[in-house]
TrEMBL record, chains A, B:
Residues 5-66 form the HTH asnC-type domain. Signal peptide: none annotated. This is Lrp/AsnC family transcriptional regulator. It comes from the Bacteria.
Length: 157, 157
DNA sequence: CATGAAAAAGATAAGCA
DNA sequence: TGCTTATCTTTTTCATG
């Protein structure tokens, strides 16, 4: 099913996850090849799903979204239908960037990005706390962020 | 200092954060304009820092990184030099995707992406727990992920 | 913001190791 | 099969009105 990545493939992925505007020519030069094989490998990586998409990374704060909050949630029931319904509702909120089911102190960990504390409170009151079967809710307000990347470590794959 | 985004700018940002391979031509068509104003706006958005970069989004699991863990950490001291040293060390670990200083139950919340539980344990033993002034460490192992995006909600900016 | 031309990049094809 | 070289097409980029 899944085609195996060689060294060159991972090098290409490492380059593109840092900067997808790099031309095939410049990548080829860096890897000591010509453009065609690089081009074909990239197409293959896209087709096989190793590359999911290409996106512009925006500056949250510049566009007015200055607050990141992580929210740890426990539910009052754990039946399958509860969980599915909860996830569906959560995913529909545009403020929610991530929703993970976790083991440990919480059932779910959410990452939310909003304008400010006011907007967060509005979200809590008018959206989150209206969900049924909601148990405990703990907020971790981000004070500052030292690192925040989508790049994944390809050095060992 | 900061130039104000109009409706068209935010539309362009919304399009590019979903798919940065869209041509200016196709964006122009969607917005009912010609290519040059769209082109100029994009350049401006890049120059002003609204667009930080363009990246390829990879499929973590396909490249062999199947486990995401959030780690809540408290430190044993809160002096400024402690915090700075801690953040510097953490940021150098390639397994760490995010490092946030938070208020609430923890001092720091980390997001880590690794191969599997073994790799996570190795990280804990050979890297994280070697840091001095480390207090309590709580792991939230991701069981499944309902939503995980970098797209931010531009509907209200 | 429109037009249009030059430069660059993307994409494809024929042939070689 | 995977690379090279060469060619063609599309997009980007920019000057001018």
């Amino acid at each position: 099913m899944s085609y195996t990545l060689d060294k060159i493939d991972t090098q290409i992925l490492a380059i593109l996850q840092k900067d997808s505007n790099r031309t095939t020519k410049s990548i080829a030069k860096e890897l000591g090849m010509t453009t065609s094989p690089v081009f074909e490998r990239i197409k293959k990586l896209e087709k096989e799903g190793y590359i999911k998409k290409y996106v512009a990374v925006l500056d949250n704060k510049k566009v007015g979204l200055k607050l990141t909050v992580f929210i740890g949630i426990t539910l009052q029931g754990h039946t399958r239908s509860y969980l599915e319904k909860f996830v569906t509702e959560i995913n529909n909120f545009p403020e929610i960037a991530e929703c993970h089911r976790v083991s440990g102190n919480y059932d779910y960990l959410l990452k939310l990005i909003v304008e400010d504390i006011q907007a967060y409170e509005t979200f809590l009151i008018s959206k989150l706390t209206l969900l049924p079967y909601l148990g405990n809710v703990q907020s971790l307000i981000t004070l500052s962020t030292g690192k925040e990347t989508n790049e994944i470590d390809l050095s060992r794959v």
